[in-house]
Membrane protein (Microbacterium mangrovi), 484 residues
Amino acid sequence: MDGFAAPDFEFAREVLQRGVAALFAVAFLSTLNQFPALLGEHGLLPAPRLIAWVRAAPRRRSLLRPTLFRYLRYTDRRLRGLCAGGIVVSVLLVAGIPQLGPPWVPMACFLALWLGYMSIVSIGQTFYGFGWEMLLLEAGFLTAFLGSRSQPPPVVVIVLFWWLVFRLEFGAGMIKIRGGREWRDLTALMFHHETQPMPGPFSRQAHLLPAWFHRGEVLGNHFAQLVVPWFLFAPILGYWLPGPAPALVGDAAAAVVIATQLWLIVTGNFAWLNWATVVLAFSAVSVPGAGTPGIGIPLGWVVVTSAVGALYAVLSWWPARNLAAHRQLMNASFNRWQLANAYGAFGTVTKVRVEYVIEGTRDADPDAAAWQEYDFKGKPGDVRRMPRQFAPYHLRLDWLMWFLPLGRSLEDWFTVLLVRLLEADRATLRLLRTDPFDGERPRWVRVISYRYRFTDRAEYRRSGARWERDRRHVLVQPISLPKR
């Protein structure tokens, strides 16, 4: 590091700019494919209805975060246009084309992605209530100020990325220590691989590893999230300590974060959360001598990035205080623009996996009917089917289906989902893996509650099933559309 410039972090900038842009492309693609059916004009929770409710009373307007659809009437066509534009800009950034120009060009591109995706998240309701949404928004905002290849990265923005990774990792570590006892007695990962929201193809193998390994996983997690993040800031000591040691410590800290996140990627399906953490951790990776010597940062860009640093110095008071709070908030934003957020995940681990299975029939008598299951793309259903790897792509309906058994009552969107299945709504059916009725309307649907667990190796050899499930009860009795 040299004054305002961080030439040794040009490789880090390349990874950050291209990686964050790639994640935006995935986010916009996920929205393009799912938003109309979930939240569109005829969705399960129509966004136009939310916008109309906010507009109906001036006192409600503060409840809606910034969105273009506050001023531009929402239509599914406009939503698709926004997503298509976001994908195009993201792909250009992944290719590195805007970065070839002056620094304001990639800045404008990333701020456009930030504002465009915020416009979606702000009206996304429960389907966009995940911590990695605000993580992507904050990462996109910071990436806008990394500059272009015409100059080295600014120190202040690189440090803000370290602060982001620190809040992400240390916040997650503290929420665990303060959360369920299973994180303190080292048993959390004896359950987590089996009960996580959407297992991946290697989750069962991870679950079947011995208990001593799972205890080691928890210890490693605590080390990676509670100890290592402090060392991400080591490169700043290079201003005062000669030699490569500060940079090497930062590299090592980043390597630990990346390694632990790769293990989570292999053993789970957490949308782009882990991939984003991997990309962001590269902010601490320096390559001495990689930058072009003798090139500084123009005064105008120093002023801009210093203003961003000053803004974060003010906004960071709330997340910093939250980290020290006994009742720590998880995945919370303290301002309308979702900057300097608080992060965290899995403060407690569920011990039993409960799945709600939706069934339908075309028979007239539901009591004597032959019922067939609707199979989802990601969530467990067919006990013989191997879970698939979807991350960083986000299956929003599948994720919310996991949350349903954790609540006290069924949510409104789930009731609408059952109605859409009775109507054989094509957009809704495209969210599922299979439609047992090939586009025809069922006469009845019902919901059965099951307990799922992974089979052990002997059970798998006997049956070929990866899951064992036990029926608990009928959650929703057979329902049908009213006769016309």
